[in-house]
Automatic annotation (TrEMBL):
Family in the record: Belongs to the G-protein coupled receptor 1 family.
SUPFAM superfamilies: Family A G protein-coupled receptor-like
Keyword Membrane: yes
Signal peptide (UniProt feature, chain positions): none
Residue ranges of the TM segments: 74-97, 109-127, 147-169, 189-207, 246-275, 287-309
GO cellular component, one term: plasma membrane
Keywords: Cell membrane, G-protein coupled receptor, Membrane, Olfaction, Receptor, Sensory transduction, Transducer, Transmembrane, Transmembrane helix
UniProt source species: Alligator sinensis (Chinese alligator)
Topology with respect to the bilayer: Multi-pass membrane protein
Protein name stated in the entry: Olfactory receptor
InterPro entries linked to this entry: GPCR_Rhodpsn, GPCR_Rhodpsn_7TM, Olfact_rcpt, Olfactory_GPCR
Gene coding for it: LOC102379952
Subcellular location(s) per record: Cell membrane
Length: 369
């Protein structure tokens, strides 16, 4: 940018005003301008608003994804396509089995069916767009679509945490107070816990998404991730993000600590109750009712702590992506597998359904013959 010299400014001032004392005025102006630049040169938000007319808002973001190698992208496409199909099939089967078998119409499986819905939503928010970008040359996503994806990622993740906490409380009521279980976990309470999980997810996502619409993105527009998550978006904003970061931190701490504390307290009581059971067979049966849930909770919280509680010195784009894959793509796939393989009641229900289907098809074939 052209910057006029001090002598030019003095000459111009004297010609315009007819004054012979232009040097003092110009020197004062230059000193003030220099001091102003020194004070505000390190404040991005002020710099943005002073030069706002010279900036262009971003209309789309570029998702850099997991790799820029075409061969690796094809391999990743195949792998994540299989994972997504397994996720859809597994969680759909879980929901259908619970609905079809009357033996599974209990609070535990009521929560499990809703967890399957959340897992399908969670995976469907991120994987289809990632698969499309793996095959695309221009890996772009519009600003509004990016914000929408971020909203549903926050909604799904919060619902998953809240639902798992509700399931932990259900296991606590079943093992620690079995005589009062039917009254404690009645249909109204179960619906309230599920509704509360979705409400908490909605509030958490709104609190963190609405302020993002007030941010300005003037470039660069590249996101070093395969999806639109909030921390990478805040990193490329041209305006101040201090309020957004504080809101995200407070919400994450309150929600994460609250759900973790409820789950932890529930399992502490469960463990002490199981240890007081005299027979080994009784302890084994009691623990088997919550082992699947405990494994799922362990996987999810391990990924969450690695993502948000790691020291800044170990921050890595690759590590962030690996952890995101674990809790947003792998966990929704693993949940129905864990619950079907480690849960005897689900396996028994599957066997009953397949037996009925086989007998029905055999009967139909005999009639046709």
């Amino acid at each position: 940018m052209y910057s006029p010299s001090k002598s030019c400014l003095i000459s111009l001032f004297e010609k315009v005003t007819g004054s012979v004392d232009g040097e003092a005025v110009v020197v004062t102006y230059l000193d003030f301008s220099k001091a102003f630049d020194t004070v505000y040169q390190d404040v991005p938000s002020v710099g943005y608003y002073l030069g706002k007319e010279n900036q262009t808002n971003v209309t789309e973001f570029i998702l850099l994804g997991l790799s820029s190698d075409p061969q690796v992208q094809i391999l990743l496409f195949c792998v994540f396509l299989v994972i997504y199909l397994i996720t859809l099939a597994g969680n759909t089967v879980i929901m259908l089995v619970i609905r079809a078998d009357s033996h599974l119409h209990t609070p535990m499986y009521f929560f499990l069916s809703h967890l399957s819905i959340v897992d399908i939503c969670y995976s469907s928010v991120t994987v289809p767009k990632m698969l499309a970008n793996l095959l695309a040359t221009h890996k772009s996503i519009s600003v509004n679509l990016c914000f929408t994806q971020m909203f549903f990622i926050l909604l799904s993740s919060t619902c998953e945490l809240s639902m798992l906490s509700a399931m932990a409380y259900d296991r606590y009521a079943a093992i620690c107070s079995p005589l009062h279980y039917a009254r404690t976990m009645n249909k109204r309470v179960c619906r309230q816990l599920v509704g509360g999980s979705w409400t908490m997810g909605l509030m958490y996502s709104l609190v963190n998404t609405v302020p993002v619409f007030k941010l300005h993105f003037c470039g660069p527009n590249e996101i070093g991730h395969f999806s639109c998550e909030l921390p990478p978006l805040l990193a490329i904003s041209c305006s101040g993000t201090f309020t957004n970061k504080i809101a995200l931190l407070c919400c994450a701490v309150i929600l994460g600590f609250g759900t973790f504390l409820l789950t932890l307290v529930s399992y502490i009581h469960i463990i002490f109750t199981i240890l007081r059971i005299h027979s080994a067979e009784g302890r084994r049966k009691a623990f088997s009712t919550c082992s699947s849930h405990l494994l799922v909770v362990g996987l999810l919280y391990t990924a969450g702590f690695l993502q948000y509680m790691k020291p800044s010195s170990s921050s890595s784009v690759i590590l962030d992506q690996v952890v995101s894959i674990q809790y947003s793509i792998l966990t929704p796939m693993l949940n129905p597998i864990i619950y079907s393989l480690k849960n005897k009641e689900v396996k028994t229900a599957l066997g009953r359904i397949f037996t009925k289907k086989f007998k029905f098809s055999t009967h139909v074939n005999r009639i046709q013959l």
